[in-house]
Design brief:
- It is a single chain.
- The protein is of the alpha/beta class and about 280 residues long.
- Helices cover about 40% and strands about 15% of the residues.
- Strands 1-11-8-7-5-6 form a six-stranded parallel β-sheet. Strands 3-2-4 form a three-stranded parallel β-sheet, with helices on both faces. A two-stranded antiparallel ribbon has the order 9-10.
- The N and C termini lie far apart (about 45 Å).
């Protein structure tokens, strides 16, 4: 049987470390780190993530403040309010739910956010740092969550062959850079990759972040390989599925993450850890 790499185990270890670090920070008289959550409108998926983040941060002892704007707010008014949040010295990190409303150009917000407070890793400065191998920046949280799961499981990346299926700027591309920084040999795959199953079967570690439910079955997995499923797909009945056919590959893979309960569980704790990092830099 495959080892099931549960996100809850990683979260527990991370949260304990952050609470210990926070205790030292407050003992030194420093402010408790605060995350500004910026939301336009009330999309159900944004609200769900927001509730989870607020609860997770409260459990650790971190502060959050919600900045909720009406869906019809003008771009000019939103950017003016965003600049104030950006400049607030009491705000150590900012999470912006995207996509924003249709009348607001996401690119303007991505370019405006202070890279030192960009704990979700969306700014061009932080993205450039990831591609340059500069760990002073912030990686997108989902990409960093994949590495955290592998680290927690004690899975070495040095010299390993890794296939990443999906080339988005949110996961695939930055994750490839994070893996390269750990001396992995990375193949970044996509929809145009010839004989994709054969390429994936060469991998010691397979990461699925393509956004298509159950796309990767047994023909993609070498026996004993580690399979990390980043996919979050909801069917018409409201069921949640990953990009990997979990039932098919369990027992073939050496280790595999479940959906739900895998990578997504860790993402919010990565956000908290990056907030702690931002606060430590700003003191």
């Amino acid at each position: 049987m495959s080892v099931i790499l549960k996100g809850a185990d990683v979260v527990k270890e991370m949260n304990e470390a952050m609470m210990a670090e926070l205790a030292l920070r407050t003992a030194d008289g420093l402010a408790v780190p605060k995350l500004a959550i910026v939301r336009v409108g009330e999309r159900p998926d944004d609200l769900a993530y927001e509730r989870g983040a607020v609860k997770r941060f409260a459990n650790i002892g971190l502060r959050t403040e919600l900045y909720a704007f009406a869906a019809e707010i003008s771009q000019e008014d939103f950017l003016a309010a965003f600049r104030q949040i950006n400049a607030d010295p009491d705000v150590h990190g900012i999470l912006v739910f995207r996509p924003l409303a249709p009348q607001i150009d996401d690119r303007l917000v991505i370019e405006a956010i202070d890279p030192a407070k960009d704990v979700d890793g969306i700014s061009p400065v932080n993205m450039a740092k990831i591609f340059a191998g500069d760990d002073s920046g912030f990686a997108p949280c989902t990409a960093a969550a994949v590495v955290a799961i592998l680290d927690h499981a004690g899975i070495s990346l040095k010299g390993k062959r890794v296939a990443v299926v999906g080339r988005s700027l949110v996961v695939g591309k930055p994750l490839s850079m994070l893996l390269l920084a750990r001396d992995a040999t990375v193949t970044l795959c996509h929809s145009k990759t010839l004989d994709l199953p054969a390429v994936c079967r060469e991998a010691d570690i397979l990461v699925a972040c393509v956004g298509k439910a159950k796309m990767l079955g047994v023909e993609y997995v070498r026996p004993g390989a580690v399979v990390i499923d980043v996919g979050i797909n909801v069917d018409e009945e409201g069921n949640l599925w990953g990009d990997v056919d979990f039932t098919a590959v369990e027992g073939i893979a050496g280790a595999v993450t479940p959906v739900p309960g895998g990578v997504g569980t860790v993402t919010t704790s990565i956000l908290a850890r990056q907030l702690m990092k931002a606060a430590a830099k700003g003191r």
